[in-house]
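Usage

Read records sequentially. Each one opens with the input sequence:
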Amino acid sequence: MSSVTSELRGPVPSDAVAVAADRLWTAHVSGKPCAPVRDVIGATDVATAYAVQEYNTRRWIDAGRRLAGRKIGLTARSVQRQLGVAEPDYGMLFADMAADGEEIPALGLLQPRVEGEVAFCLKRDLSDPRLTLVDVIGAIDYALAAIEIVDSRIEGWDIKITDTIADNASSARYVLGHEPHAIRDVDLELCGMVMERRGEQVSFGAGAACLGHPLNATLWLARKMAAAGRPLSAGDLVMSGALGPMVAARPGDIFDLKINGLGSVRAAFAKGAGQQ
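and closes with the structure output:
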């Protein structure tokens, strides 16, 4: 058994966890969105929602997928207020979610949206629940501009906090830039982000929109993962959270993202049937 698989092993799930996990699993495999799972696990039980997420994570690992890191969601205070929570959430990143340098096929995506983010690659483990910001800074190898493609297996994005957590924090794919930068060389708080769709500006923001600073979000994640016994490790990727509003993506869309100090990245979606 791999170390990753063993660290995710837990007690036999309750019936509610299994029912919710099966609903989301079926939606992913079938390509058909499902009803919200809050009718099964409740609208506010975050711990149970993470149990659902973890249950399906174990299933994916057993099916051969490899963990590549974590993503942080709900880093905007406005979105937290909308969902009635006071902190972000997290989800798993699998290696096959990477879409670097290739068109993103419609297959496997249900109702995708895109966000501009700062991604970090780690060079050291972060295993102590008493982590400080200094620890996190020292563990980061480099930063990249990134586009996260979020998606919801819940029909119509009809989500509350437990729905999105159970659904792996609405994670789907990600695209990384090709310009790694040391974080000391970038003003991650004030760096501006602009995203365009075929030349039209569709989203903008700055590092401060992500919990005040992308490193704040990363520290939050590192502490959560360490406390849960699933710490971040050297080589892991961290998608630190959106710098601006997310935008719906359609077949044939091309998004170009620029972040001051980190360069650019493009996400190109394959055309649908009948498109030229």
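Summary fields computed downstream for this record:
- The domain at 67-268 is CATH 3.90.850.10 (Fumarylacetoacetate hydrolase; domain 2).
- Residues 1-9 have pLDDT under 50 and may be disordered.
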